[in-house]
Amino acid sequence: MSVGVLAAFQMVYPELNFTRYFTFGRIRPLHTNAAIFGFALSVIFATAYHLIQRLCRVRIWNDSLAKIHFVLYNLTIVLAAITLPLGLNQSKEYAELEWPLDLLIVIWFVIFLVNFLATIFTREEKQLYAAIWFYIASFVTIPILFVVNNLSVPVSFSKSYSIFSGVYDANIQWWYGHNAVAFVLTTPFLGLMYYYFPKHIKQPIYSHRLSIIHFWSLIFIYIWAGPHHLLNTPLPEWLQTTGMAFSIMLWMPSWGGMLNGFLTLTQAKEKIKTDAILKMMLVGITFYGMSTFEGPLLSIRSISALGHNTDWIIGHVHSGTLGWVGMMSFAAIYYLVPRMWNANLYSEKLANVHFWFATLGILLYIVSMWVSGITEGSMWRAIDSKGFLQYPSWVQITEVLKPFRFARGIAGAIYLSGVFVMLYNLIKTIQNSGSGFQEIDLRVKEEGKSA
Predict the structure, then answer these.
(1) Less CB within 10 Å around the terminal CB: N or C of the chain?
(2) What is the enclosing helix (H) or strand (E) of 445?
(3) Could you report the per-residue pLDDT of 278-305, keeping only the tens digit for each?
(4) Which residue range(s) make up the domain with 220?
């Protein structure tokens, strides 16, 4: 997130590109990979290990595999943080890491997947709750997407070339890119929602039937929507139309799930003023609804022609990542840490301060990017009475956008300040825990024998 703030201000003050290792072109992929595959995926793995044992009523299948997964995963993050600023990059969005790291990722993901599925197969709880379905869909789909998109021919230890080319490469890339958003930033966090919302408020999910409809319709529709990233390009017309149609259909399951989460939280509305976790959950599900409305909207050809490649897209992406993923992650972290260390949260007041920093930061960010993006798209399209571009100079447009991009940098700094408040709060919580980390026996006794 710190790198993201630096990248935001580089768009306003080019002199901040002070060395080749910290130019925008190198730190931008570092920012996206760290945020998505470093922060978000860490939360996904942590919550998966936590909830799968409780919903299946068994210990994780193999502790050693979990430890190997932890070490290799964090090794990948460190190596990514080193190689990306060095310029070792495949030039494919969300798939920038070179082939040695791709292989390492596949190894630890398979290790995790085996451990996760084996825990499910050895469970002592007959029913599979909806939250597990969303996690299974994510963990089965992610490696398939990742492997296909990263198929390449290595020419050295630090360089490879994709086996796809031209329009085929673009199609595969955005089949992967869109579904990386689907199965990393959406479905596992919906699984998180279906488990932690009821657990925190101590009330059942609003509708189990709706959760089933939500799951199957989302899984069927989401995988087809990737071509909407390539509207008005050489991609075949029928494929663009297919992507647009399925993207518009995503409104229905997305909002069905959003309403299910929202109506679940209304069962504890009397706590909303004081409970920081509940506030984060509520704002998170609200931003999920906003971003899943905006995504299908931007997939319509005429609107895509205005918004594509502008700051509007940046605002859309961050309403999902900072609003939905960020808030859900913070809520899960605040829920887990005190329970894992058997302690009360150090300061509920600081958690509320974090909530307001995050909320105000997100709102300032997306509003500034909406205004900037629509202004940018309109200026690109503007023509004079003779039919010539009214603003032919890219620099001329960039100067107009500076105030909005400066506001975006300030918004990112506000959001980041909230993260530092959270870190302080959690560190103090752990320090004051007394007995330290607590291991819980998940076995239950049924009919006189250990379950």
Answers:
(1) C
(2) strand 445-446
(3) 999 999 999 999 999 999 999 999 999 9
(4) 2-432
